[in-house]
Write a structure and sequence with these properties.
single chain, 240 residues, mainly alpha, three-stranded antiparallel β-sheet, two-stranded antiparallel sheet, 5 helices, 7% strand
Length: 240
């Protein structure tokens, strides 16, 4: 039976339309459509990651000052601990030798008690280093140094006008301490307590010393006898 050409044409177009519709559905659900969805998800993930990184950076920046302050506080605690260890070593040296040391090596190398040949260690090498200064060198303080006079003034004010002498009453310690008595009346040396920053790079003067101080000129977080400058903290065995 011969088909009507018009009907054949209509059937052909219908078949073609069905094929096109099926192809369109395949494309809609095919790899390219799925790839577009994955790309969108990756985009959202990237935005979320950037937002998270931004929050972390902001949190780190806000915490940085607190971290620096805590680090400085720990260094100051260590400086006080080491300084007081040096002060105790000075006391031991004077007790055994009858005179103050003249160099940090005198303390680190140790000293032999009277009648004994073998030296006794009185200071750890690590304590001979100042943790607050870049070079790690303590400034040696002598009895007639201006820094020592200022420290006596600060301690006297801190103690309500009474200078708290140490408990060591040995003749050698008392002889040295007696030279401090005339300094207690000097309550104002005209110096400034404003921290200038930086470090003291001057050479320590030679001769017997009765204490040490940091070379850091920065303001402190902690206080030592109400003193708020690193280089004003004098660690000595004569005041407790």
């Amino acid at each position: 039976m011969t088909k009507n050409p018009k009907h054949a044409s209509l059937e052909g177009r219908a078949t073609t339309s069905d094929d096109d519709a099926m192809t369109t559905r395949r494309r809609a659900h095919g790899p390219s459509a799925r790839g577009g969805g994955a790309t969108g998800q990756r985009g959202y993930a990237l935005v979320a990651l950037l937002a998270l990184m931004t929050l972390i950076i902001l949190a780190t920046m806000s915490a940085a000052p607190s971290i620096r302050q805590q680090t400085r506080r720990e260094l100051e605690r260590e400086a006080i601990a080491r300084g007081e260890e040096v002060a105790e070593a000075i006391r031991a040296y004077i007790h055994m030798k009858g005179t103050p040391p003249t160099s940090m090596e005198d303390l680190v190398d140790g000293v032999a008690p009277p009648g004994v040949i073998k030296k006794r260690q009185i200071l750890r090498a690590s304590a001979a280093r100042d943790p607050l200064s870049s070079e790690g060198e303590w400034r040696l303080i002598k009895a007639n140094d201006r820094e020592f006079t200022e420290f006596i003034r600060a301690v006297t004010l801190y103690s309500n006008g009474r200078l708290p002498m140490g408990n060591d009453k040995t003749p050698a310690m008392l002889n040295i301490a007696n030279s401090f008595a005339r300094l207690t009346s000097i309550l104002n040396t005209g110096s400034s307590d404003e921290a200038s920053g930086g470090e003291d790079t001057s050479m320590s003067s030679k001769g017997p010393f009765v204490g040490v101080a940091s070379r850091s000129r920065h303001a402190s977080i902690l206080t030592y006898y109400d003193i708020e400058r690193h280089d004003k903290w004098v660690f000595t065995p004569f005041f407790k």
